[in-house]
Amino acid sequence: MALGRVRALRTALTTAVLAGLVLPVVAPGAGAAALPPGFVLRETDTGLGQYQLTDFAPLPGGSVLATGKDGRVRWVPETGTGRTIAALPTRTVSDLGLTGIAVAPDYATSHTIYLTRSVDTTSGFVMRLSRFTVTVDAAGTPSGLTGELPLFEVPGFHNVHGIDTVAAAADGTLWLSIGDAADFTKVDTGAFRAQDVNQPYGKIFHLAADGTGVPANPYYDAANPGSTASKVFARGFRNPFRFGIDPNLGLPVAGDVGWNSWEEVDVVQRGANQGWPCWEGTHPTPGYSGLAECAGVANQPPIFEYQHGSGPMQGNSVTGGIVYNGSSYPAAYRGAYFFGDYVTHKIWTMTYDDQGRLTRGPESPPVFTDIGGPVRFAAAANGDIVYADILSGKLRRLSYSAGNTAPVANASSATDPATRTVSFDGSASVDYDNDPLTYDWAFGDGTATAANAGPQVSHTYAAGTESFTATLTVRDPLGATGTTTITVAPGNHTPQLTLTTPGDTTTFAVNQPVTLGAAATDAEDGSLPITWTSAVRHCPSEATCHAHPGIGGTGASFSLPFTEHPDSRMDFTATVTDSAGVSTSKTYTAMPRRHRITLLSTQPAALSIPVEGGVSTALVTEGATFDVVAAPLGTDGVSKFTGWQGGPAETTWIVTVGAGDLTLTANYATPIDQRYDADPALRAKLGAPTAAEVTDGPVHYRTYANGRLYWSATGGTRYVIGPVLAKYLAFGGHAKLGPPTTDTTATPDGAGQYNHFVNNGNVGSIYYTAATGAHAIYGEIRKKWAALDYERGLGYPTTDELGTPDGAGQYNHFVNNGNVGSIYYTTATGAHAIYGEIRKKWAALGYERGLGYPTTDELGTPDGIGRYNHFSLGHSIYYTTATGAHAVKGEIRKRWAALGWERSYLRYPRTDEYVTNGVYRSDFQGGYITYTLATGAVDRPW
């Protein structure tokens, strides 16, 4: 497969539910998929053809909208032939095309959908998220699209890594992903757009319905909600082509397609930086990681990564997936995350905990292979995994026979006594997996069974016997059956039953009365008594529905309060039986009036609705009372729960669902909040906050009117203010120096201020005085300065650490009461201090360009009279108050050293080395040394 096609469609999904999608069984030999025992693949054709199917989304009632790379939108009904309802202008080169679709949660009334695609312009192309309205025909089925409203549009640069997945959340917000829009054929500095929160590339966004950012986003600016930064949820992606929102964590789980070597799956935390292009998975990216732009770039490790190749645990284009929440699969798969690889035609599963940490790695080798090219995962009504196979243009569903829900057979009959013909109707039979059923009828009179005869049949009985028992057996595609019997009297009129109900569209709150009426007559018997039964049908999912028998009664009317049992509906059945034993029944199902309850938190945290299985969002019946629980600590392990907004301070809150959707927010105080709130003096010092707290990898910070608070696991919570903060930010902030380990603190002499910082164990500082300004000092130079007693020794730095002209060394200058000093460092010489008269002499001789770098600090001579520094070119400078500072070099220095330095009769130098008539000479207190090539170094007294 050509690279353009391999990379044309990356994969994953928003977690949609395919309510009622009917998928026929794949014919034997139709595919070579290798599946675990008990699993089968079923499929339905979207009509889009090979290499076109990019995404799909269910509609209320069970049909599906599917998108084609070429801009087609197809309506695919449960049965029958689909049709194209739109062909949108779309740029289809390479990765680009119509790539994403989502259905609004209020589609039943609004007919709103969202599409992502690339569109040609006069100057290139743009990548666009738009809202559309689906038009319907007289039968109420989709017939077209109208009213395009662009919500998000950005220019494109390359025909790869474009606009990808859109997900419509139950709260009306939208999630969106866009790749880095960079050239994959070479190192492209444009890929660094993925690191810039002000650039709309290489990001996952969380948007309000109008396309602006949501306030919970990490970089949200209330004064400018339409800014790119306000929309960003996480950054540092190469191409998060597909992602889904984990219903338990409330976080995106994305498959990020790699470059040369690695594919990754990310549980995406708020404010996370997934590291691209500096990191590919957990590995520095060759060609990028050594660039200056990668210095200090944090990397949130993926939950799983795999290497490129064709081996069992390798692949080439990751397809993000979903968590299996059904109950028909074996226990090993329940709660497992399904994901795949589009290029190598495989699916893995793995599990992770409520903090996004891997608890079971993917199977090795994968257990689902040769399954086609998955480019989007979703769940069927019973939880079965469904995916879009771009290689065939079909939707494919993984079902498991052992966990299949058996269908329920229901039958009624009507008799024509004149001809002894009984008409049977089994269309009320139910399969809670929404599978198609076959109907086998045995009429009870010894005639052959009518196999696969359909839900409605007729049978004429011979005279002589007045009562028979007919049997209906319904069978789903996996072989599960349901059976019911019905007594018929061919010469007897069937009782007629009329049921009066609140209506099929009426829904009920907890304890709201459900009242029904019935009337029954019979041609032979006249009025008949009516018997009522009720049942609570508990449906955690449609595949796991089961009945709890309820209260019964008799009479023309019947009423019960709607159940408080969670995730349940109620069945009310009226039954009449005539004197011939022929019965007629009719059932009314009362459905719950449900509202979405959503748990949010001000910081990522484990939130749960225990009654709904521990998820953080669920549809719950109006009037239901239950508890919600927040973890005492956020997922960072340090943010503390402080109470529910509008609720109790305890982690558990008992709530009752009212007449609308309910969002509950748990407040968490980050370490930054905790310190700020607990310290009035600090609040006065920093002023009011001016922006939301920002998470950048392991470092958190918040900006206030007069400074910033930083938190890290290594430094704790520390404030940085004034000129020290200005220098810190100008110098590169925590990316360069690391987070602070002290507050901005006054120096002992009261003249200055400082903060210490640490970056991967390396300590740095910024010191400030009004006279010197603010300057950074770190590494070996800082260690030397500290060893010399900080500012009490050399004084305060007057420069940041700078490089020497020859590129070999680094230095800082200092000043102490007007006296200038320096520390110079090279890897060969280490860090050494030089100051006073010796430094002046060294400076006069050209610094390191004259004598080289200092190899010692300034030291005292053994006699206590003089001071000296040695230098890397074999020279020295000696100083006494009597002689001043003078350099001693080369062969003359060697002769002086051989005589015993200043302890010799020559004592200290009075001059630098000078040349007279070709003779090199240095004068000393007790004599002099001359040097020529012919004589060598010769010392003489005065």
UniProtKB/TrEMBL annotation:
InterPro entries given for it?
Answer: 6-blade_b-propeller_TolB-like, Glc/Sorbosone_DH, Ig-like_fold, LGFP, PKD/Chitinase_dom, PKD_dom, PKD_dom_sf, Quinoprot_gluc/sorb_DH_b-prop
Q: Which CDD domains match?
A: PKD (cd00146)
Domain PKD residue range list: 435-488
Pfam families linked: GSDH (PF07995), LGFP (PF08310), PKD_4 (PF18911)
UniProt name for this protein: PQQ-dependent sugar dehydrogenase
Classification from the root reads: Bacteria, Bacillati, Actinomycetota, Actinomycetes, Pseudonocardiales
